[in-house]
Amino acid sequence: MLKIENLHVYYGGIHALQSISLQVPEGKIISLLGANGAGKSTTLRTIMGIVKPSEGRIEFLGESLVGLKSFQVVMKGIALAPEGRRVFTNLTVTENLALGAYIRSEKAQIREDIEEIYSLFPRLKEREKQSAGTLSGGEQQMLALGRALMSKPKLLMIDEPSLGLAPVLSQGVLSKLKELNQTRGQTILLIEQNARAALSIADYAYILETGIVKLEGPAAELASDDAVRRTYLGIH
Amino acid sequence: MTIESFLQNLSNGISLGALYALISIGYTMVYGILRLINFAHGDLVMLGAYFAFYGVAMFVLPWWLAFPLAILFTTLIGIVIEKAAYKPLREFPRINLFAAAVAVAFLLENLAIVIFGGRPKAFARPAFLDQLLKIGNISFVSYTPVIIITTIVLCTVLILIISRTKAGIAMRALSKDIETTGLMGVDTNRIIMFAFMLGSALAAAGGILWAIKFPQINPLMGVMPGLKAFIAAVLGGIGNVWGAMIGGLLLGVVEIMLVAFFPQLAGYRDAFAYTILIVLLLFRPNGIMGEVQAEKV
Ligand SMILES: Nc1ncnc2c1ncn2[C@@H]1O[C@H](COP(=O)(O)OP(=O)(O)OP(=O)(O)O)[C@@H](O)[C@H]1O
Ligand SMILES: [Mg+2]
Q1: What's the burial of A131, exposed, middle or buried (CB within 10 Å: 0-12/13-18/19+)?
Q2: Which of A82, A38, A50 is nearest to A205 (CA)?
């Protein structure tokens, strides 16, 4: 579904991505792992057209995404729940969700989908008319996820959904993602600090290290690989 | 002061404040979105008045055609300014945008002097706006209620657009976080253009109403109302549309009432009005409607 080849990105003089290649097949959960500063967020931001690659290809359903603006990428069927949630604190919870559906026009259907997000995250329903700025960090994360789902993306990309969440909550978010994948066939590209949790729900994973793909493989294999266990899972 | 003259002054202050409000909305919307003080905004007030003047005086159009056309043309110029002068600079340090805004202001003023001529022109009010009305002992000219009602209608429409429509929600989102608004599938350049359109249209409407209230127009007529509307926007809490309306109204009323109560201060009218405002800002540094900037990261 998504195919990235030899992607290079510079921030001024910093060579943040040094020939990244990866693939996301339809219906799968793919995880992007790696230490801080490895280039995970940069990869997703480049896909979304926020950052321009200096070299390389990004193909989605056979079409190139390079050179498109964020809104055009969204219209192709990709949504990103960005790092740090970035909910609109000056809008209400419902307005945040409605904005997530900006590219869609069927009003009745959108209203139904908002209700569906609320049944997925009942906490949000109770706060639907509150401004998103009054939500707790965990609730904001649910909102960011719900908002990304509102565009009905073919590919959902999530940058560290469990950042700042209590372990119980982060486990909850990840199992919601698995559920979405299994019940709706939602394709997901997931960045997650908690490598063990990510590998437990992913089908396939890429491990990035300072801008290159250091290792890749089926999640189950990586999870049982000794080197991976030592370096990324903290198991000795 | 008699109750009659009080009410007369009040209506005068409210109509002046309504004009400040119309103009200050454009400042506040552009600031809210781009963090840019659009110094050229006051000159759109002048353009609106001149276009209306030429529509009636030169092209002999009826006012109901000339005025909307004047608003349309001013709006187009607002869009051109945004596209030509501001958009290319958006990625650069803010100070470049400020310099561009000042440059555009001088450009418009000087072009107006060359094209329209530096000498003031007499703006002919449509007859129905020139009637002397009397309610009891209070007398006023018919343009006063028309200015107030027009402003209320325009502000209501604007508030509905901002609070209810998709573009309005996107505009509010944009003022918080442009990048993430783009991630929602919003063409942010179009929404920014839309904000300039709305602001320019209101400035033009304000300019025409200004010319009706003070029927002498000249190429620098937008400078003072522009500055005052800017102050009104700050007073109301810059970035906040409700604040701009309240700030404008307050400013107009304070200005007029001060002179009404203390006629001996007439010469110092602006000095005193603005001293009061400075004091007000000392107590509410974020403006009347300004939010306290505390946010979760
Ligand atoms: N806007 C920027 N300007 C300059 N350098 C940047 C910028 N964003 C990221 N970088 C650099 O690019 C590299 C990759 O950053 P990136 O945010 O992609 O890492 P990450 O893998 O997402 O890390 P984390 O796990 O901490 O989120 C880092 O060295 C970072 O300092
Ligand atoms: Mg990151």
Answers
A1: middle
A2: A38
- B239-278 residue pLDDT tens: 889 999 999 999 999 999 988 888 888 888 888 777 877 8
The reply to whether A22 and A70 lie within a common domain is yes
Alpha helices in B117-222 (DSSP H): 143-164, 166-176, 178-183, 188-213
Burial (CB count within 10 angstroms: exposed 0-12, middle 13-18, buried 19+), residue A34: buried
Ligand 1 pocket test, candidate residues A10, A14, A163, most atoms within 8 A of CB: A14
Task: Enumerate the residues of chain B whose CB falls inside 8 A of the CB of residue A52.
Answer: none
- Of all atoms in ligand 1, which is nearest to the CA of residue A51? 1
**Same domain membership, residue A102 and residue A70:** no
| Tokens linked to A136 | 């707790």
Tell me the C-alpha distance between B114 and B123, whole Å. 19
Atom in ligand 1 nearest the alpha carbon of residue A41: 22
What is the distance in A from the centroid of ligand 2 to the CA of A159?
A: 7
Is position A229 within any domain?
A: yes
pTM of the model: 0.91
Strands A212-218 and A204-209: antiparallel
Rounded to the nearest 5 degrees, what angle is found at the Cα of A45, between the Cα atoms of A92 and A206?
A: 115
* Closest by CA position to A41, among listed A67, A3, A75, A11: A11
Q: How many domains is chain A partitioned into structurally?
A: 2
Q: State residue A234's pLDDT score.
A: 65
Q: Where in the sequence is the domain holding A219, given as residue range(s)?
A: 1-77+154-169+190-236
Mean pLDDT of B21-39: 92
Round to whole Å and give the CA distance between A25 and A3: 8
Whether A82 sits inside 8 A of B166 (CB atoms) is no
Distance B133 CA to ligand 2 centre (A): 68
